[in-house]
Amino acid sequence: MNKEENLPGGEDRVPDEELPQEQPVNEGSKGRAEMDEEFSSTAPVAKTEQPAIINFQLEKDMEVHHHPDIHHKPKKWKDYFLEFLMIFLAVTMGFFAESYREHLSDKHREKEYMKEIVANLKYDTLRCSINYTQNVLGASGIDTLRNEIKKAIDGKADVNKMYYFNFLYARESNQAAFNTTAISELKSSGSLRLISNEKLIEHLADYYERKLFAAQTYIPDEKEIRNKEDEVFSMLNMDDYVTSFNNLDLSTYQSNYNFKDVLTVTPALKLITNNPKELEKLYNDVTSFELNIKRYNLWLSICKKAATELIAEIQKKYHLENE
Q1: 283: domain range?
Q2: Is residue 62 in some structural domain?
Q3: Separation CA 285–CA 75 (nearest Å)
Q4: Whether 270 contacts 234, CB under 8 Å
Q5: How many CB atoms lie within 10 A of CB 191?
């Protein structure tokens, strides 16, 4: 008995040769559905809970960044005192540094002013010396003129000599031009306060405000004697003298006229008047002028001495001996 005969429903079984045969299918020709099924059977199944895990992780990471605590703890009074002390010390040190800088600057300015004053004083001593010497010579010539006037009063006049000594010595005096630029600038700029030595301030004031003032007060007045001279001496025959003023010497501010030529003028020069009374008035004016020159020379010597002492005092105090 065949096995097929024993199978149930065998009578209805389709013979094998009539069944449709499976065709071999290439891997590349598989259908999309079959490949998807194959892939899904081998690939790991994605977990549907993953988004939730990611969100949880993000929240966990975000919790690490805490906001800073903006509520500071109250400071102790020692902290406030320390901050105040530091600020106070900084301001104080800045103040002292600035004050020291100004102190150094003021000392430098003070020394520079003293150098200028010393230069002015040296100029004053030179002018005092030169003018003092010239005035001594002038006073000596005026003294000789007085003697000639006396002879003229007695009727023994040497008129040419009278003209010579009058025009050479009695027409003017020599006056010192003091240099006060440094002290004037010191006062006008308010820098006199820079001088800390009270004695030096007193000596400067004594020199500039008293001694120089006195010297200027005693400058001889040339107008008085010239007015009287014009009443006695004539310029009628003094053309050469007048012409000499066309070319003044710029170093001496004087003409180059040779007064000795007057001594040999011929015929002899004449006076406007031989009246003894008028000659006596001339004598008095000439004598007064001579005395004023000598008085002025006294103050020139006083000023020179004071200036020399001031120079030595300033140089010693400010160490300017070698400058």
Answers
A1: 100-317
A2: no
A3: 96
A4: yes
A5: 15
Q: Within a domain: residue 154?
A: yes
**H-state helical runs in the chain:** 3-6, 32-42, 50-62, 77-153, 159-169, 181-188, 198-205, 212-217, 222-229, 239-243, 260-263, 276-317
The answer as to whether 146 is a domain residue is yes
* In a domain? residue 43: no
Phi, psi of 68 (to 5 degrees): -65, 150
* DSSP string over 263-320: HT-SSPP-BS---HHHHHHHHHHHHHHHHHHHHHHHHHHHHHHHHHHHHHHHHHHTT-
- What are the pLDDT digits (tens) for 148-189? 999 999 999 999 999 999 999 998 899 999 999 999 998 888
Whole-model pTM: value is: 0.68
If pLDDT is split at 50, 70 and 90, which confidence band does 1 have? very low
Domain count, the chain: 1
- Identify the three-state secondary structure at position 233: strand
